[in-house]
Amino acid sequence: MNSYKKWTGAQRQKSLKLTNEAMKRGLLERPHKCRICGQEKGILHTHNKDYDVTLELVPKMLDGTATEEEMAKVKEVLVPICWRCHMIHHSKYRNPEAHDRYFEEVKNGKQYPPVYHHDFDILKENGF
Q1: What does the alpha-carbon distance between residue 55 and residue 35 come to, in Å, rounded to a whole number?
Q2: How does DSSP classify residue 122?
């Protein structure tokens, strides 16, 4: 896994492992609907907005010592997101105009078809 913002690939991998374990145990919900566009089909991911939060608090969830407030904080930073929204979100600096256009379309109600395979050619229709 690559470094992202201030987090190393190793930190991100550790957070993913912890998050997946919490999902496996039913402590965190698996994504079932994109929080951005509403897509419920195809590939759904969990975007982590703050790895510091998950690295600190998910272990507490796993050992049963997390408070309700801490659990809510973890759930706040883990965003259920469809593959298309996730890939375009991470392409903001590659093509800011296409990024902004896509999210404005989605905000205004446009629904793109679900993505079932990690096919980056799909993103060409959005200008990437």
Answers
A1: 22
A2: G
Measured in whole angstroms, the distance separating CA 42 from the mean position of its chain's CA atoms is 14
Question: Would you call 116 helix, strand, or coil by DSSP?
Answer: coil
DSSP string, 28-45: SPPP-S-TTT---SS-EE
Strands (E), the chain: 44-48, 78-82
Residues facing residue 79 across a β-bridge: 47
Q: Which amino acid is at 106?
A: V
pLDDT tens for each residue of 6-59: 999 999 999 999 999 999 999 999 999 999 999 999 999 999 999 999 999 999
Q: What is the DSSP letter of 4?
A: B
Would you list the domain boundaries of the chain? 9-126
